[in-house]
Each structure stands twice: as structure tokens, then as C-alpha cells.
């Protein structure tokens, strides 16, 4: 058995495989079909200070080797999370990380502060990159000023591990990563979905209710991997890699590109147990190559 | 209480082409007894075909034969995913995540008259529902609608467990017209209606039920990705706000929906 333990700042993960926000619910939905305790961490769905209804149906379109979604941060708000969900998941057996979103820096900070009071949640992932809401989300993630303003506000309100999730829908993702590092982020995770669209040719209209959506799945992997490589070279904080990972080889590519941990998103929809298989597969690969610890291959790609 | 979900490599024991564009897949679990499933629940079937059939396909449970350890899926060949499923052959493996969602309410009293209305491939879950009712000593009435006779499926199976009434749009079988125009609706009294079919049909049956104060459930088939309530893609607007069809449904009481 290789050593799979990895760190994201002060946060210790038993293995580098986490499930991405919005693709694994609160974990409990998957308990029948996967051993939750064998996953490195679960990033629960996007949570906002106030409840949000999200966008209208249809919210999803299948695309070649991927899918578009425009869910729009549907959630019941942070108080519902703290009172109703948290008691059910706090002892679930792995790291629970809450993905936090908002429509202003104060809004983000208030939500983060509520999560900060929860004893068994040791990290948040700040979503400054949701492409599917107008009042915020990606608006903050596409400029260094916007990203800095949100991280600055949240950093004051939240003392535990702060991971900032970056948008790929920018000209220069490295400058955004550096900006959030300067504001005190403990780590960055990337990439969020790529903005796209699809058209129903019979109806002569765009398929999704709001016209555009975020593209995810194996089709985005090369783009994500390139960005993880670039960002990991440029910052001194840990990088969490995601984007189209569906097997152990994909995960190892991201780790070699510089990711200290990875997230699995859309692949959970194809195989709800994939995250455990990826963790096992990383172990097998390390053993086969006589490598003692996953840490030994972080960022080794030339 | 929710039934435990499983991921199973099913084996196809029989493949039959029905009508012009339907395939009936009868599957078994060669390793173990199939888990309990309720009428109206569905499975997420893995399509390992091409890049065009990336996501699983939600397919309703057509019938469960516990004696032969079989679960049946009736697949309408409409897009790349369903066509790939339809191309599977006897002996092939079909990876299924099941059972998912909430099924139809079962009647509390065998004396009640229950009408099951289906249109097109939407007739599929009604066979299992009717069969379960039959086990409880009931004889449900099936009202099945289709464009023409060749689109009406599994009629012999339906007749074994209930009384079958048919409408076709071209009059090639049964009464001509839509299910809501069938004479049985004015001639007989029903205590409860369960519906599965195209949205316009379900909406008109729901209107009929509401007008006549008959409790009515409908089974929705919104597009979905995960089937487990995680991705929030398949939402339907209800009196409680947006809810997932995959976990809060697919069967809904019509009073929960915001249909006119």
C-alpha cells in the first residue's frame, strides 16, 4: 500500500481524490453504492447565504464526451445547510468541504462565516467561477480585482482552509491565481466549467433555458490540465486539479502537472463509485512503479 | 422507506423487437437475486457506445419477474443512446443503477377501481404496476393510447392482469382519438388514476382527473444526468419549488405540480 495522504494547506486528506461540487450532492445520496469513507474528500454543492431556486428547466444538454449544465446554484441557503444537512454529514467518515457562492463580497463572507462555525468542516471552496448566474459567480472570477475583492472579504471572516475555485473563462488564469494567493487564499482549485451552448436544430433555439451553460466531462480535460500545469508553476500554494477526470491515469496526469489533490465531477454521473476506483488505481500505479508516496509525483511533469 | 440502490452488471437474456421502433430487453443478475423494485421506479442504464452517448439513460422498470430473476426494460429507439441500448444482444452485459426514484402509490383497498393510463412508451411502467395490483387481488383497467395499432405494445401481457381499453389516433385499433376521448371515462367510475406518457397527454388526463375530483398521479420523464438527486438537472416546478424528478419523482401527485 502506497502512502496516499496529501495536504491542502492545513487540511489533511487520506487520499488525493475528492468529489467536485454539484456532482455528488451531500454524499449521503451516494451512500448505497459507494464507500464514502474511502473517498479523500467531498465538496458539497454550492451554498449561498440566502436560498436560490436556480434556473428553469432544461438545465442540461449532452454533448460529445461531456455535458452542459445551467443549474444556477439551486440550494436552500446556508442556514438550512447548517441546521439540517450538517448534522447528517458531520460524521460521514471523510473531509466535508463546503462550496460557497454569493452575489457580493459581503454575501460570500456572511456565508463563509456561518460555515466557519461548524466544528467538523475544516475547509471551504470559494466559487468565484459559476458561469450560470448573472448576479455574481463568474463575474468575480474573471478579473483580478473582482477575485481579490471576494477573497479579501472572505479571508477576514473565515480562518480555516480557504480554497478558491477558478474560472477557465478568462484570458490569463495565472494572473487570477496569483491575485487570490496575494489575498491569503490557502489553495486554488481549477477548472470550473467552460462556457458553451448547444442548439436544438428542430426548434431553431438554444437547448438550455438560459441559453448558455458550463461544459464539463472528458472533453475539457486537456484544457484543464494545461491550466493546472501553468498555475502550479506560478503559485506557491497547493493546487487542486479538476476537469474531465474519469480514471486513475487522468488523475495522475493532473498530479504530475502539479495538483496536490484532484476532484472528480461529471464522471460520478456515469459511475457513482468512480472516486474510490480512482483512489485505488492511483495506489496500484504507485505500487507498480515502486513509488512510496503520492507526494513524490506532485508536479514532476517537465 | 427508500429501497437500497445497487449498481449491477445485468446480463441480457432476451431481446425482442416490438412494433416499429421498440426493443424489449429482459435482463437478469447472474450473480444474485435482483433487489426489490417498486412500480414506477426506474434504472439508469450505462451506454458504453460512442462519444455521443456519454450519460446513462433513465429507463423505467417495465416488469419484474421474481420467479425468473428478471427485470424488463422497454426501450423506444429515439436517439443515439436508446438506439445503442436497442442494439444490445442476448448475452451482453448492461450496467444498471437501480432502483431509483419513487414509484406509484399502491391502492390501500382492493375494492377501489383503479385506472392506469399510458401513451406510447409510457405504457411501460404500467405493466409492472398492474401486475402488482393483480397480486393484491385487484383487476385494474388499462387505457392505452398510441398513434396506430403497430405502436401498441405488450397487449397480451396487459390483458393477463387487467381489462384493456385502447385508443389510436388513426382508428386502426380500439376507439379513434386520444385517451381522454375514450367512452370508458364517461361510462365507468374510477377512484384513482395513474398516468405515464407524453406530456400533453398527461396534462389532459390530469385536467380530467381534477375536474372529476379523482386522485391522480403522473410519471414525468425530464432529462437527467445523475439520477441520484446530485446534479439538479431534471428539476420540475412544484408547489414546493424546484424539485428533482429523479428523487422526488418521477411519480408526482398532480396537486404537487404547477400544471394549469
Topology record:
The complex is a heterodimer of chains A (302) and B (260).
Chain A: E1 6-8, E2 11-13, E3 17-19, E4 41-47, E5 60-63, E6 66-69, H1 78-89, E7 95-100, H2 105-116, E8 123-127, H3 138-141, H4 144-157, E9 161-165, H5 173-182, E10 187-190, E11 194-196, E12 199-200, E13 205-206, E14 213-216, H6 221-234, E15 239-242, H7 248-257, E16 259-264, H8 267-270, H9 274-288
Parallel strand pairs in A: 3-4, 3-16, 4-7, 7-8, 8-9, 9-10, 10-15, 15-16
Antiparallel strand pairs in A: 1-2, 5-6, 6-14, 11-14, 12-13
Chain B: E1 6-18, E2 22-28, E3 42-45, E4 57-60, E5 63-65, E6 70-76, H1 80-86, E7 93-100, E8 114-119, H2 124-135, E9 141-146, H3 155-161, E10 163-168, E11 175-176, H4 184-187, E12 192-196, H5 199-211, E13 216-219, E14 235-238, E15 241-244, H6 245-248, E16 251-253
Parallel strand pairs in B: 8-9, 8-12, 9-10, 10-11, 12-13
Antiparallel strand pairs in B: 1-2, 1-7, 2-6, 3-4, 3-7, 5-6, 13-16, 14-15
Condensed summary:
The complex is a heterodimer of chains A (302) and B (260). By secondary structure, chain A is an alpha/beta fold.
Report the principal-axis shape of chain A: globular
Proportion of helical residues of chain A: 25-40%
The major sheet of chain A is characterized as: 8 strands, parallel, barrel
- In the CATH hierarchy, the architecture of the largest domain in chain B is 3-Layer(aba) Sandwich
Low-pLDDT residue spans of chain B: none
Greatest chain-chain interface? A-B, 33 and 32 residues
CATH class of the largest domain in chain B: Alpha Beta
SSE ordering of chain A: EEEEEEHEHEHHEHEEEEEHEHEHH
Q: Tally of extended strands of chain B?
A: 16
User: Structurally, how many domains make up the residues of chain A?
Assistant: 1
Strand ordering within the main sheet of chain B: 4-3-7-1-2-6-5
CATH fold name of the largest domain in chain B, please? Rossmann fold
Amino acid at each position: 500500500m502506497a502512502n496516499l495522504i496529501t495536504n491542502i494547506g492545513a487540511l489533511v486528506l487520506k487520499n488525493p481524490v475528492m468529489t467536485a461540487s454539484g456532482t455528488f450532492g451531500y454524499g449521503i445520496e451516494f451512500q448505497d453504492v459507494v464507500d464514502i469513507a474511502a473517498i479523500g474528500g467531498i465538496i458539497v454543492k454550492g451554498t449561498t447565504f440566502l436560498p436560490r431556486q436556480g434556473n428553469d428547466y432544461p438545465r442540461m444538454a449532452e454533448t460529445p464526451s461531456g455535458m452542459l449544465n445551467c443549474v444556477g446554484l439551486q440550494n436552500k441557503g446556508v442556514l438550512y445547510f447548517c441546521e439540517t444537512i450538517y448534522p447528517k454529514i458531520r460524521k460521514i467518515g471523510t473531509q466535508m468541504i463546503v462550496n460557497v457562492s454569493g452575489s457580493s463580497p459581503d454575501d460570500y463572507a456572511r456565508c463563509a462565516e456561518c460555515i466557519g462555525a461548524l466544528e467538523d468542516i475544516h475547509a471551504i471552496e470559494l466559487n468565484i467561477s459559476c458561469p450560470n448566474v448573472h448576479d455574481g459567480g463568474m463575474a468575480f472570477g474573471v478579473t483580478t480585482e473582482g477575485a481579490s475583492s471576494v477573497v479579501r472579504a472572505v479571508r477576514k471572516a473565515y480562518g480555516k482552509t480557504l480554497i478558491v475555485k477558478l474560472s477557465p473563462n478568462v484570458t490569463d488564469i495565472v494572473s487570477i491565481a496569483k491575485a487570490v494567493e496575494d489575498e491569503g487564499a490557502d489553495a486554488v482549485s481549477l477548472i470550473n466549467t467552460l462556457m458553451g451552448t448547444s442548439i436544438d436544430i428542430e426548434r431553431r433555439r438554444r437547448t438550455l433555458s438560459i441559453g448558455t451553460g458550463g461544459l464539463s466531462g472528458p472533453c475539457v480535460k486537456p484544457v484543464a490540465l494545461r491550466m493546472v500545469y501553468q498555475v502550479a508553476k506560478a503559485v506557491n500554494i497547493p493546487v487542486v486539479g479538476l476537469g474531465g477526470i474519469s480514471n486513475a491515469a487522468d488523475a495522475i496526469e493532473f498530479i504530475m502537472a502539479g495538483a496536490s489533490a484532484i476532484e472528480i465531477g461529471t464522471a460520478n454521473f456515469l459511475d457513482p463509485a468512480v472516486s474510490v476506483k480512482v483512489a485505488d488505481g492511483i495506489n496500484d500505479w504507485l505500487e507498480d512503479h515502486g513509488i512510496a508516496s503520492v507526494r513524490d509525483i506532485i508536479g514532476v511533469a517537465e | 422507506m427508500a429501497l437500497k440502490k445497487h449498481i449491477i452488471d445485468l446480463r441480457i437474456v432476451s431481446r425482442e423487437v416490438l412494433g416499429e421502433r421498440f426493443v424489449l430487453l429482459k435482463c437478469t443478475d447472474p450473480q444474485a437475486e435482483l433487489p426489490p423494485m417498486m412500480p414506477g421506479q426506474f434504472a439508469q442504464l450505462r451506454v458504453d457506445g460512442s462519444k455521443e452517448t456519454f450519460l446513462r439513460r433513465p429507463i423505467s422498470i417495465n416488469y419484474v419477474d421474481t420467479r425468473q430473476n428478471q427485470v424488463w426494460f422497454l426501450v423506444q429507439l429515439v436517439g443515439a443512446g436508446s438506439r445503442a441500448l436497442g442494439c444490445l444482444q442476448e448475452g451482453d452485459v448492461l450496467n444498471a443503477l437501480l432502483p431509483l426514484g419513487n414509484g406509484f402509490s399502491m391502492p390501500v383497498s382492493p375494492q377501489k377501481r383503479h385506472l392506469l393510463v399510458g401513451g406510447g412508451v409510457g405504457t411501460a411502467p404500467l405493466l409492472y404496476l398492474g401486475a402488482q395490483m393483480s397480486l393484491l387481488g385487484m383487476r385494474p383497467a388499462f387505457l392505452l393510447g398510441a398513434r396506430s395499432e403497430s405502436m401498441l405494445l405488450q397487449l397480451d401481457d396487459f390483458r393477463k392482469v387487467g381489462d384493456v381499453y385502447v385508443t389510436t389516433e388513426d382508428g386502426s385499433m380500439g376507439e379513434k382519438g386520444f385517451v381522454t376521448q375514450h367512452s370508458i371515462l364517461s361510462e365507468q367510475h374510477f377512484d384513482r388514476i395513474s398516468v405515464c406518457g407524453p406530456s400533453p397527454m398527461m396534462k389532459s388526463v390530469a385536467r380530467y382527473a381534477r375536474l372529476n375530483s379523482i386522485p391522480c398521479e403522473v410519471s414525468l420523464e425530464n432529462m437527467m444526468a445523475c439520477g441520484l438527486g446530485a446534479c439538479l438537472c431534471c428539476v420540475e416546478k412544484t408547489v414546493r419549488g424546484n424539485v428533482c424528478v429523479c428523487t422526488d419523482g418521477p411519480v408526482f401527485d398532480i396537486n404537487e405540480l404547477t400544471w394549469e
